[in-house]
Specification:
Blueprint lengths: L1 H30 L2 E3 L2 E3 L42 H14 L24 H9 L1 H7 L1 H9 L12 H13 L1
Helix pairs in contact: 2-6, 3-4, 3-6, 4-5
Length: 174
């Protein structure tokens, strides 16, 4: 009687182990490759159906050359060539007022200004420099940037329009 009991117990445990291993194996196959007629076919992602639109890029990488932002600057014309004296003045202001949060060519607490005029209008940039609070309150892109940069709002450095324009000219040199 004892041997029948042990035999049945061993069979039951063996069956349990067999079926539990088998079901895990099927689950793993279901999560990774597709199994058909005992042949494995790897899943492949197709990039041809994916569109790179404004929702797939980070706000700091999106290009918006239409939005002028919210603030005192409604229009600005950038002259060629770059005004070197104004850019040097802007570089000095940038070093004194902005480098705690911004590095010229790499992401830091805030975005890098290098290439900013390839992604934003000059008016948007100046409005962000002059009135970051107003931009955060009223400009959707500024709000998205705040989220991207971990809720660290841009500090208002209370620059004049002339100082902000000098900083903008410096950004053109980066």
């Amino acid at each position: 009687m004892k041997t029948k009991f042990y035999t049945l117990t061993i069979l039951a445990l063996s069956s349990l182990v067999f079926f539990s291993c088998n079901s895990n194996d099927k689950k793993k196959k279901a999560d990774n490759p597709i199994v058909t007629n005992e042949k494995t076919i790897e899943k492949k992602e197709s990039n041809t159906n994916k569109k790179e639109d404004s929702t797939t890029k980070a706000p700091s990488e999106r290009i918006d050359l239409v939005n002028k932002g919210v603030g005192p600057i409604k229009t600005i014309t950038l002259q060629e060539p770059i005004d070197k004296a104004l850019a040097e003045k802007g570089q000095e202001i940038y070093k004194n007022m902005c480098t705690a949060c911004h590095k010229p060519t790499k992401r830091f607490i805030g975005p890098a200004p290098k290439g900013i005029l390839e992604r934003r209008t000059p008016e948007w940039v100046m409005n962000m420099i002059l009135d970051p609070e107003g931009m955060l309150a009223k400009d959707p892109l500024a709000g998205e940037l705040l989220k991207e940069f971990n809720g660290a709002p841009m500090a208002n450095q209370n620059l004049t329009e002339a100082e902000a324009r000098a900083v903008l000219e410096y950004f053109r040199t980066l």
